[in-house]
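Fold this sequence, please.
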Amino acid sequence: MIIPGPAIHESRGPQAIIRFVVFAAIAMAAIDGIVVSIALPTISRSFAADVAHSQWIITAYLITETSLLLIFGRLSEYTGKRTLFLAGLILFTASSLACGLAMSLWELIAYRVFQACGSAMIFSISWAILFEIASPEDQGRTMGYIGAVTAAAGIAAPILGGFLTETLGWEYIFLINVPIGIVGAILFARYFSRKEQVGQEVVMDWPGSATMVLSLIFIILFLFELSSSLTWSWTAALFLLISATSAFLFLIAESRSTHPLLDLTIFRNPGFSLPNSATVCFYMALFMVNLLAPFYFEEVMGITPSRVGMIFLIAPAVMIIAAPVSGWLYDQKFSRALPVLGILLTGISLVLLGYAARAQDLYAIIFLFVPLFVGAALFHSPSSTDIMRALPLERAGLASSVSATIRNLGMTLGVCVSGILLTLYLQAAGYSGPVQDAVPGMLAGAVSAILIIAAALCGVGAILYVLKNHLVK
């Protein structure tokens, strides 16, 4: 049962403060994921751990965050977005302090799980909060700012992570979150005064929650197992079986529950389901590039890691400019054309990048990064706004959490599938050793072929969006 209450809009000053806090929380969580990757060798040496064990610092975080996004999105309907976001920010801050003080590898991994819980609380409803406080004519621009903030985090993360790790120690990549989180929590608690419609009591769908978490955890474990060994082991088969069985039980539980975790009827709405499906294709394609590009630049072109990092700054630099412009164009009534144009531009850029990679033309590759990420910006902001607008405003938390889960799965699939395809291509060419020791020409051919596959995924996404525009007037 829902208690009705009037929607009270904050004045422009408090709105700006709320936006600042939410954007800061998004940036903090995004930076934290990247800087951990940069500091991983140092952390491994600090705890005298091998890579196989220290990788769980990243893997445990990813699995926890992805599996909990929907649950927290559902929970926000009972707690209210203010309470859940504030709890997530406090938990993320406290667990960041614990991570910085961890005395062993497994202690650090355990605290990273709590940190991922806080991140899932933040990400599950951050879009909904920003969407609700924005006026209708500014909603697209607000979604664009999210892309710009994430891009800025992408620029700051390697610089900040490298500086902190080298000068103060890896612990400070976590400890730096503490003062930011404390200030953010105080400001958010003070200025977010909106009265929300919340449930009288929490009626959680525990069977649905349990089966969904199991399905997501084991599909991610299956993908990591398959991409790391590329052999059909009993472990991989068991992970896939558990995931498929849990997914089947989840669908049964949701169809029978009076208070489902995920109302499956929302996917009957083509304005919601088709943009989310296109988003999976888009993020798979984009994260194929993220995995392949460092191998290509270092092993084929012979570029040092520091120069590779400089090349990768092109992406966030373009997004910082293009994402808000994309959101502004959406608000100027270009909403139907922009997502299709964006994902098509991304796909065409990937095709051209495939040919440039085969030709080993560094300048062409660097140049093509610009339209690639302009296309990404043109797709991200409008598609995000379309997804949020597809459901009633009172279900914004659900729309936000489903979309966040979809993005995470797309990213994970992109990384794992591209790793599998890369190894398969090299094996088909007669090479079975480490990727970094492959003949440069052979590796260039593999990267080229996979980029064409990524472009095809963008083509599928564009078709899905054209279909959405045809069905939803």
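The chain has three domains: 9-196, 205-260, 263-467. The first strand starts at residue 2 and ends at 3.
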